[in-house]
Amino acid sequence: MKKLLMATDLSARSDRALQRALALAHQLGATLEVIHIVSDTVPVSIAEQYQASARTTIEQLLASLPLAANVKPEIAIIRGHDYEEILYHAQETGAELIVLGITRHIAYELFRGTTAERIIRIGDLPVLLVKDPVARNYERVLVATDNSPAAQRALECAAAIAPDAEFHLLHTVHVPFTGFLGPESQAQIRQEQERNFRNAFEKGIRAQVEQLGNGGLRATFHIEEGGILSVIRDQAERLKADLLAIGSHGRFSLRHSIIGTVAGNLLSDPPVDVLATKAW
Q1: Domain end (from 79, 101, 123)
Q2: What is residue 162's three-state secondary structure?
């Protein structure tokens, strides 16, 4: 990725997203543009003063961040309707990734309709939601995958922003009919199902992994049984992941993502930074 776009609302919670965007731009040798949207409902006379003040605020913040001197980000203050202008500007400037801050930890029902949710739901670009303080480049990436096109793009985008990281590819599986069997039979069938699926799953995705990065990614495959949301959160904690990558199928609803409505729960209350992508 060579062109990044970071959208800020000038709040303190956007600071971590800006720091991560600067770190990524520096790491990848990419350009960075910082954008702030001024509502088109604000009167023109007030908007002009606010735009000047917003630019000054961003310039002062950048001046306090050492990486900004190397990255030299551009600043754009635009009037319009938040998510629409962000998506339009990203398309017009050829941005390859949109970086946003986490507004707050809220319920999935309240997350719907936020700027972040609309950008992810309506747009086609990968979106990085930054939750955690920036101490270093991403080191451990957890990719929730079913080997679908959406999941494959999530892996590709994660590899693009964290090429040197350790990757963990996670898939959840359900073993049917075990409730009708004894404990020994359950264990035997479970092991056989997992072995068969692992062989098919790894064969299909290992070729993609080997094509990514410099000589392939450092990737470990995990197949776990259980509820998708709880498995993802448990694995993120166990592996000490600092980035979670998820893919979404549908243009119009997060309910069509590879992990169903779980996507909304992860995005509204993420365990770590989240990279959300769409299938091509």
Answers
A1: 101
A2: coil
Pairing of strands 273-278, 127-130: antiparallel
pLDDT value for 43 = 84
pTM of the model: 0.86
Instruction: Give residue 253's pLDDT.
Output: 39
3-class state of residue 233 by DSSP: helix
- Start-to-end CA distance of the chain, whole Å, equals 16
- Indicate whether 153 and 275 sit together in one domain: yes
* 8 Å CB contact between 19 and 110: no
Question: Are residues 155 and 145 in contact, defined by beta-carbon separation less than 8 angstroms?
Answer: yes
Q: What is the pLDDT of residues 46-70, one digit of tens each?
A: 888 999 999 999 999 999 999 999 9
Length of the chain: 280
Residue 108 belongs to a domain:
no
Q: Which H/E stretch holds residue 127? A: strand 127-130
Q: How far apart are CA 50 and CA 181, in angstroms?
A: 68
pLDDT digits (tens, 9 = 90+) for 5-45: 999 999 888 899 999 999 999 999 999 999 999 988 888 88
> How many whole angstroms from its chain centre is CA 144?
11
> Residue 166: phi, psi to the nearest 5?
-90, 125
CATH number of the domain enclosing 233: 3.40.50.620
**Quick one: pLDDT at residue 251?**
41
Selection from 268, 275, 276, 277 nearest residue 102 by Cα: 268
Residue 37 backbone phi and psi in degrees, to 5: -100, 125
Domain count, the chain: 2
**Secondary structure (3-state) at 26:** helix
The whole-angstrom separation of Cα 128 and Cα 276 is 6
Rounded to 5 degrees, what are φ and ψ at 277? -130, 165
